[in-house]
Write a structure and sequence with these properties.
The protein has two domains: about 170 residues, 3-Layer(aba) Sandwich (D-Maltodextrin-Binding Protein, domain 2), CATH 3.40.190; about 130 residues, D-Maltodextrin-Binding Protein, domain 2. It contains 14 helices and eleven strands. The strands form two sheets. A six-stranded mixed beta sheet has the order 7-6-8-5-9-11, with helices on one face. Strands 2-1-3-10-4 form a five-stranded mixed beta sheet, with helices on both faces. The chain is globular, with a radius of gyration of 28 Å.
Amino acid sequence: MSDKKLAPSSRRNVLKGAVAAAGAGALAAPMIATAQTTTTLRFQSTWPSKDIFHEYAMDFAKKVNDMASGKLKIEVLPAGAVVPAFQLLDAVSKGTLDGGHGVIAYHYGKNSALALWGSGPAFGMDPNMVLAWHNFGGGKALVEEIYASLNLDVVSYLYGPMPTQPLGWFKKPIAKVEDLKGVKFRTVGLAVDVFTEMGAAVNPLPGGEIVPALDRGLIDGAEFNNASSDRLLGFPDVVKNCMLQSFHQSGEQFEILFNKTKLAALPAELKSIIDYAVQAASAEMSWKAIERNSKDYEELKKQGIKFYKTPDAVLRAQLAAWDKTIDKKSAENAIFKKVLASQRAFAARAGQWQNDYMVDFKMAYNHYFGKGAKKG
């Protein structure tokens, strides 16, 4: 190589040639494709495939799948596809299923305190306030404490505050407290204890078994949840009376379960997607419930179903029965008492705020749609 120095212009020409050659080489080089791995998680709901609740489970899965862009896929099976509805928690913990969708009150048999997220008047909190307590008032840590004490390898996400549930469907309307005595009745969670205290003979049947039991006369009355689910399950085919309003499950939440080990193995990006999908699904479920439940309520009335407001005397009797139930459970179970104390402290503050700030929406509704209202 010559040791002569190149002129500045010559050096520039050499550099241009080198850059061009490098660029041409890069274009000529083969592209190396990186294959994307999809993690698939198998979920099961505790609902029949036709139920709106199973649809809610599918809605959550779709949000995760859409945001994960092929990196994560959740497949949701209906109740009974792998395990019976009430065995979901154990199946997820053991890894038989990667996750599931249900309600936390279904695990009442594991620890009665778990029903406090679904049963009872929650010290006057509505469903959204109960979820606020869970996320910001200490409820989430208490669920984790209970599941850890049971050696369950699960992560729980509570979401989707449900509208207040009816007292139930009955062969004869409930006109007074005494009408519940001796009635063979289906409910779940701590509502079992409340209705038992009120004199009913309670049988906690899974959702899919309720209507057949009513049809065969094995039970006299039952509650499930809402106008959409009750209509699809076939309640109006076998019973014609429905009592609206109740404190037995006035603030319930849905639960999304993940196997803890499987969830921990996911990258941070996918965990964040799951977190935000829970929040998005919670909001959408609330809105969809208003749309669908109100339409199905109208359809049930067209089918000739008679709806009655639960008498105030029955509602007050529920509160009295609830007080006896929680006193008994608190004496038996320290964590039950701890959860109640946390709920009560949050409700005292948040309930005062809500009751003072919220206007009476019924007044406005009656102004436009009640008797004597002007036609629009």
